[in-house]
Write a structure and sequence with these properties.
globular; homodimer; mainly alpha
Chain lengths: 175, 175
């Protein structure tokens, strides 16, 4: 089953909003404070205070290493992935599987840490933060699975305007 | 370029030795001590003492969450992957990309932790442990890259004895 309209819309919104979240919030775990605008710092303080996020508050080394990879690889991928899903291009299949698997993997220790951290003010606060992070596991994992299941995730038309591919397609239609 | 004999041999040895390492050593981070045989415990103590491994010694939650996934997903994959590389089967492409990306990702925080940990007896000890873990980043990453680059990583023959595929191949040779 090729990728349907609903899932495509979810992925487009996910990539677009993730660009903002990565630049304004996550990047603060590794950028020097001098380059971060004041309103972004306030936003992060607000998130840490409201959602009791121990990872963004204490920023352990292992967590920061993932943020570095988020800036180096995920951030450029959001633009590439957005364009590919917007234009329904099958060439996103392999890069998208790698992106989805990588990102879902980074959420494993993050969610494990949230599940076991012992300084939440309440169990409700723990689950609130868990649910905030959960989509960053679920959506990338669904991207990886959806792209894995179909050799042409966007169907025959998803091979796009590459002249070789369309010539082959015309030929096979004629034959 | 399809996967060459040297790389295939490296991958086979990697999967085979990893099965032993996962069962005897890594699993101890999450299994109850009662089920671990004494010689495996001695082996792990020897590794921690000799290589000053803070992760296997202190076993932080984020690290344990990766070991859980290693037991649940990587361990079964080693058998599947070994067979596929042994028999040169192209169907390993997508599962292999997911395996390689997942595993290489887990090594990012592990290596970051080793690079920044401040209780190594010497810098030489730090780099010794770094080099022990490094192949577990490099080989899975190379598997993911090698399988990504080729639509048929083991060439046309890698499609195997599936009757549909070979009938199609015979037809295309005749045509």
């Amino acid at each position: 089953m090729p990728i349907n309209a609903t899932f495509r819309a979810i992925v487009l919104v996910f990539f677009a909003t993730h660009i903002t979240a990565t630049i304004l919030m996550d990047s603060q775990a590794i950028l020097p404070p001098a380059v971060v605008p004041g309103f972004a710092k306030s936003l992060l303080r607000f998130h840490v205070r409201t959602n009791h996020d121990p990872l963004m508050e204490w920023q352990p080394v292992w967590f920061k290493s993932f943020i570095l990879f988020e800036l180096l690889f995920q951030l450029p991928f959001f633009f590439v992935g957005f364009r590919a899903f917007y234009e329904r291009r099958n060439w996103i299949r392999i890069p998208g599987i790698a992106y989805g698997t990588h990102t879902a993997t980074t959420l494993v220790p993050i969610l494990a840490e949230i599940l076991t951290h012992d300084e939440f003010p309440s169990e409700a606060a723990r689950w609130q933060l868990f649910l905030i992070y959960l989509p960053y596991l679920v959506i990338p994992a669904m991207i990886a699975v959806a792209l894995s299941l179909e050799e042409k995730p966007f169907g025959e038309d998803g091979d796009g305007p590459d002249p070789g591919a369309s010539a082959k397609r015309r030929k096979s239609k004629r034959g």
